């Protein structure tokens, strides 16, 4: 590394600190506001200094609407799809990486091409499909499609498996393992970093999904947290502390996951960088 | 609901299947039958061609995706073409109307407004996000102490996404009590009405989108760490200064990553929905994003035919923008393989 002058270093830190303050400020303001009274919000303006600690806002957040019910719905439509996506995509990714047979390249091209297709094109007919199945206003439309693979994650798993030595597969097959056993007992355990990274990315995506629930869910009992928050916003639009407390609670699982698995997230995002 | 499916459901319910699981029964039944057929076919194929086990395994392994592709992508796409040629409210049978939905769409002032708002959002926000994320990544790519902390701080806002982010920023940009206008007032500027002003609403959403550039920044940072150091050493020996190194080493190495992110960014930006939904389309339709208008037509007004036509128009716009981006970037993006093939030709 070339030497930097002291002036450049100081300048760099000044820019970074200033930028960080701008970036983190709304977040701190969100936390401070969630602990204020309504009167306190009016008088504090941009300040993030916590003058009051009204933890009661959080109690109200979990009691003023069926918070736990929505959390359960959100958890169901997040955790089950993660399992489904990881299973179906790792299976297909393994096939594209290790089972090179006639037409497999062509099929993989089709997988890649579907990445360009916006979900909105199939949104209306998919709604009609689930309508025919009698699944409108249930959680199933938000869960079932995950078990049928998603092109982006098939691509990620293929890249990961392709980088693993192919001798592993040959050895396992010679030992009398079938292909599925080879995948399940040899490759998938070795792909743990990819599985963890993909699961975290999927968690953030499914947990915050809004369009899906907005289409399929009408009745109160099946609402997920983001959908409930959107409805809450239009009803309680003026109760800022309550809204901020609820928003923070909804974001909390993502924050916890981030701090618990920071390394995996960076790794996962790196996978997706198109390298 | 389809009558056969209704019949299966009634049967399942009368057998004591829990109510919450009843909708699943017909679907599972179809899937079980499908996999029974696939399993039999695979077994038969294995008996007949014992050496083709790899081929059979391949098709079995991708069968979940293949089935999903058929029932959630190809099937809906084909039916979407047909539905876009009909007038259908889901209650009465669809009426074939030819291209009427498309000609209506091209005359609908709201479609024009939706296209304008969505394209403006994409064309302005994606370059801004790309530049900001890349510059921040460059700044954070030094070996100085504290960089990890800065990285965490810049990434943190990306975790507050979707509805929660919009709810927060409706208050940050609240004209009376908001954070933004209070800060502006302190330096003597009377802030605008942000989301409540038709002229300011879209710029406000764009500004808000810059808050979550952390995700792209992390990608760029990983890319910068991957640039082979010997390239910089070689450039230094050739007498290149920091600016030339940036232009002739960093940029060519990073260009494929930047292109990939810009491309996914453009596709994603055209699909923006949540912000428009929460703001109810904004004052004077200033946040009438295309997908929001499509959603409104399909699931509020139940105009399935019209909504399907809108979906195909969106698809055409996305394809066109992708093609333009790829074309426009062809000269500026450097791929490692290009050099390899050139060398081989020599």
Automatic annotation (TrEMBL), chain A:
- Determine if Transmembrane is one of this entry's keywords: yes
| GO CC term, one of those recorded | plasma membrane
How does this chain sit within the bilayer?
Multi-pass membrane protein
Give the subcellular location. Answer: Cell membrane
Q: Which UniProt keywords apply?
A: Cell membrane, Membrane, Transmembrane, Transmembrane helix, Transport
Predominant localisation class:
membrane
Could you list the residue ranges that cross the membrane? Answer: 12-32, 75-96, 103-119, 139-161, 182-207, 242-261
SUPFAM superfamilies associated with the record = MetI-like
Which part of the chain is the ABC transmembrane type-1 domain? 71-261
In the record, biological process GO terms are:
transmembrane transport
Keyword Transport among record annotations = yes
Q: Give the family this protein belongs to, as stated in its UniProt record.
A: Belongs to the binding-protein-dependent transport system permease family.
> What is the protein name given in its UniProt record?
Carbohydrate ABC transporter permease
Question: What organism is this sequence from?
Answer: Kribbella antibiotica
């Amino acid at each position: 590394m070339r030497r930097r002058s002291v002036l450049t270093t100081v300048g760099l830190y000044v820019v970074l600190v200033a930028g960080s303050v701008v970036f983190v400020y709304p977040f701190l303001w969100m936390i401070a506001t969630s602990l204020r009274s309504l009167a306190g919000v009016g008088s504090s303006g941009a300040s993030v200094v916590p003058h009051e600690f009204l933890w009661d806002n959080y109690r109200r957040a979990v009691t003023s609407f069926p918070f736990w019910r929505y959390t359960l719905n959100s958890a169901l439509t997040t955790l089950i799809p993660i399992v489904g996506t990881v299973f179906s995509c790792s299976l297909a990714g393994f096939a594209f990486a290790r089972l090179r047979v006639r037409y497999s390249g062509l099929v993989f091209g089709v997988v890649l091409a579907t990445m360009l297709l916006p979900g909105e094109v199939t949104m209306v007919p998919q709604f009609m499909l689930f309508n025919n199945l009698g699944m409108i206003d249930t959680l199933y439309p938000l869960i079932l499609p995950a078990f049928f693979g998603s092109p982006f994650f098939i691509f990620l798993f293929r890249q990961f498996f392709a980088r693993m030595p192919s001798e592993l597969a040959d050895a396992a097959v010679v030992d009398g393992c079938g292909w599925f056993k080879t995948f399940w007992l040899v490759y998938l355990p070795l792909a743990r970093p990819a599985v963890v990274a993909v699961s975290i990315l999927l968690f953030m995506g499914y947990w915050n999904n809004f369009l899906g629930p907005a289409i399929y869910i009408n009745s109160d009992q099946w609402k997920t947290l983001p959908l409930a928050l959107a409805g809450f916003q239009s009803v309680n639009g003026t109760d800022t502390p309550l809204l901020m407390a609820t928003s923070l609670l909804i974001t909390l699982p993502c924050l916890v996951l981030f701090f618990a698995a920071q390394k995996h997230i960076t790794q996962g995002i790196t996978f997706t960088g198109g390298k | 609901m389809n009558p056969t499916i209704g019949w299966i459901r009634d049967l399942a319910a009368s057998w004591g299947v829990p109510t919450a699981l009843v909708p699943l029964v017909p679907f599972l039944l179809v899937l079980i039958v499908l996999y029974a057929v696939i399993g039999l076919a695979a077994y038969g194929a294995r008996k007949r061609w014992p050496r083709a086990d790899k081929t059979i395994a391949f098709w079995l392994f991708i069968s979940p995706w293949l089935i999903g592709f058929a029932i959630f992508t190809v099937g809906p796409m084909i039916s979407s073409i047909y539905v876009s040629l009909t007038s259908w409210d889901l209650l009465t049978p669809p009426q074939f109307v030819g291209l009427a939905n498309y000609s209506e769409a091209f005359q609908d002032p709201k479609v024009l407004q939706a296209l304008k708002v969505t394209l403006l959002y994409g064309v302005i926000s994606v370059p801004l996000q790309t530049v900001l994320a890349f510059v921040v990544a460059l700044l954070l790519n030094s070996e100085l102490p504290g960089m990890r902390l800065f990285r965490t701080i810049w990434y943190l806002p990306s975790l507050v996404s979707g509805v929660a982010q919009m709810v927060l920023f409706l208050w940050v940009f609240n004209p009376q009590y908001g954070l933004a206008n209070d800060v502006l007032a302190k330096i003597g500027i009377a802030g605008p009405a942000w989301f409540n002003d038709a002229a300011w609403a879209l710029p406000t959403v764009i500004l808000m989108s810059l808050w979550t550039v952390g995700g792209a920044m992390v990608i760029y940072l990983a890319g910068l760490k991957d640039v082979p150091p010997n390239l910089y050493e070689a450039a230094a020996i050739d007498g290149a200064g920091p600016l030339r190194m940036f232009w002739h080493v960093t940029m060519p190495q990073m260009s494929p990553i930047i292109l990939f992110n810009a491309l996914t960014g453009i596709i994603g930006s055209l699909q923006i929905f949540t912000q428009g939904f929460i703001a109810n389309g904004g004052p004077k339709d200033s946040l009438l994003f295309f997908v929001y208008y499509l959603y409104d037509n399909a699931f509020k007004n139940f105009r399935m035919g019209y909504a399907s036509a809108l979906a195909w128009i969106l698809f055409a716009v996305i394809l066109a923008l992708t093609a333009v981006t790829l074309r426009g970037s062809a000269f500026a993006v450097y791929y490692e393989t290009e050099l390899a093939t050139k060398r081989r030709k020599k």
